[in-house]
## 1
Amino acid sequence: MIKQGTRLYINITNHCNTNCPFCCMYSGTEKKTFMGFNTFKGIIDNCNGEFELQLEGGEPFTHKAIYLFIEYAINTGRCKKVIILTNGLKVWENMLRIIPLINWYKIDFEIKISINYFLLENTKVSIPNLAKFAFSTQFIRHLQIVFNVRKRIGFDEEIKDELEKYGLLEISNIYYFQAYGKLSKSEMYAGPSIVQNIDNWILFASDGTEFGQDLIARSEFERILP
C-alpha cells in the first residue's frame, strides 16, 4: 500500500455475468461496453508518479484483455499494487493467471470478493466455497483476499453468522447497501462513500471518461452507456 501517489479506480467494463438488483454501476448481462487497450493505456500514461490500480466493473474478469491491462500497468514500474473487485464467480479459474503474475513480478495483489444475499441465493457463490478459496490461498506471498459484504437493513444477519462460523470475519468488510446506482431512489440507505487510506484517487467509467472523485456522476454515466 502506498501512502502517497494515486489510486486509479477503473471500470474496465459495465458487462456482468449477474444482474444484481442493487448494482451501484447499473451493470448487467445486457451491458456491452468494454474498455479498449489504448484508452486504458492513456489513463495509465497520464497518471504521474506511483499508483495503485483497482479494476472494477461490471465483472472485470469478463474482460478478455484484463491481463494485458495488468501487465502494462505493472511494466511501467510505477504500479505498486493491483486490486480486483469481483463477484467471485470466475475467481478460481483466474488464479491460474494471477499466481504466475505475482510470482514473476513480486507485486501485491488484492482480490475483493463481493458477498450479498442475491449472489448467495441466485448464483454458485457460497460462503463454504469462498472459505475454501481463502484458506487455500492464504500462504501465497503478495496476495490478499478480502470479502466486501453488503447487507440489507433488518436482514442478512445469517451472512455474518456464517462468515464467523468459517473464520472469515477478520478478512471481511461488512457494510449496508448504499443509495446510488439501482438503489439511487432508496430512502433506506445512506449515500455513497469510499473508505480511503490515500488522499489522491480518481474514478474512471468503462469508456475511459474521468469523474474525479464523484461516485454518483460516474454511476449515472454508466447507466446510459450501452
## 2
Amino acid sequence: MKQTATEWLFEKLWETPKDKLTWNAILEQAKEMEKQQMKDATLDNVTTNKGLRKIFENQFEQYFSETYGYKEI
C-alpha cells in the first residue's frame, strides 16, 4: 500500500532530529509527492493512447500550476 504525502510528512517530521530539521526541504518534497499522487490518480486508466495521455498530462500541469501556483516536479 502506498504512503500518502501527508503520512510521509508526519513520519519525516517525527523521525528527523529537531536540530537537523530543514522545514523547507521537507515541505517541498511533500508537495512534490502530493502532486505526483494527484497526477497518478487523475491519469491512471484514462487512456492507453500516448497522444491523448500527453494532452491530459499537459492539462493537469496547467490546472495544477494555476490552482496551486507551482510547476512541474
## 3
Amino acid sequence: MSWRRALLALIGAGLSVSAQADDVDPEYQAFQKSFLELQAKDARIASMGWRLVQSNSRFCPKTERQTGLLLQDAKAYARPEWVYQIIGKGGDIFVQAIAGGSPAESAQLDRFDKILAVDGVETADLRANKDIGWERIGRVYDIAAKSLREDSILEMALASGANISVSGAQVCATRFEVITGRDTIGADGSKIRVGRDFPGFGYAEDEFAAALAHELAHNIFGHPQSLNANGRKRRDVRRTEREADRLMPWLLSNAGYDPQAAVRFMRRWGPKHNGGLFRSRTHDGWDERVELIEAEIRRLEMILIQHGEADWSKHFARQER
C-alpha cells in the first residue's frame, strides 16, 4: 500500500469513526485525529525510506533483511482503550504502516491487523512495561530481525486466524521512525528519526526524500559512531556534513528521484533555517552547501554517462580529513 493510498484510507477511517457519534469525548476526538495523522506520516516516511534503502543496498557496506512492515503496541499509549476504539480489539500489537514497494505490501496484510505471534512467539507473552512504553515492541522487532537473519522469512499469526509469511529483502541497515514533539531530523547510526512537526512533511516528495538521503548518508558512512567515539570536533563534524550533502544526489538517483531535488531542498530549507538544524560553526552556509551539491551532481552525471549507474561505493570520493 503506497503512502498516498494509506493517507486516503486513514482519512476515510477518521471520517467514518467521527460520523458514528457526535457526542464523543473531545479529548478522544483530539487523540483520534492525532493518531491517524501520525499513522499517515509513518506510512509516508516508511515508503520514501524504503525506496532509498532498497535501491542503494547493492552499494551499502552494511545491509540487513527487512520486510517494510511497521508495527505498533497499543499498550505503549497512555490510553490504550482509545487505541482499541480506532483499530478494534483482538490484540495489542498491530500494523501501523506498510512501506510501498516492500515485501510486506505484497503480503495479505493491512493497517490495524493484529499480530498474535511472531516466529512462533506469542506477543501476549511479552510483558509490557508501563514505565518503558516501547520496550515490548522493541522485543517484537528483535524476534523478527532474528528470524529474518536465520531464514529470510517472517512468520506471523494474525487475530483474523490467518498465518502470514513475509520474505525479507536486503536493504541498507537503517530504519525510519516518526518522533512526536519534535520538528527536527537526525541519524544515530542505525535509525533516522523524523520529528512529527518537521517542515519536510510540507515539501514535495523528492525534496523530503533529499532530507532523508542526507541522514541516510550519515548512517552509511558511520558518522554518528565515529563522532561519538572520537569527539565532535568542529572540523570532523563539518567533514561529515559535507560528505552527507554530496552523497544525497547519488542516493536519490538510485531511488528514482531527481538528484536536483537535493539542491531544491537546500534552497527551500536553508534561508529559513540557516541558524538551526543545518547551520552552526560546524556547518557551511546553505548557499555554500548548494554549490557543493551542484558540483557533485555534475560529477554524478559524468559517472552515469560513463558507467550507467550511480555506484557511489566505487566512484564517490570521500571527504579528506
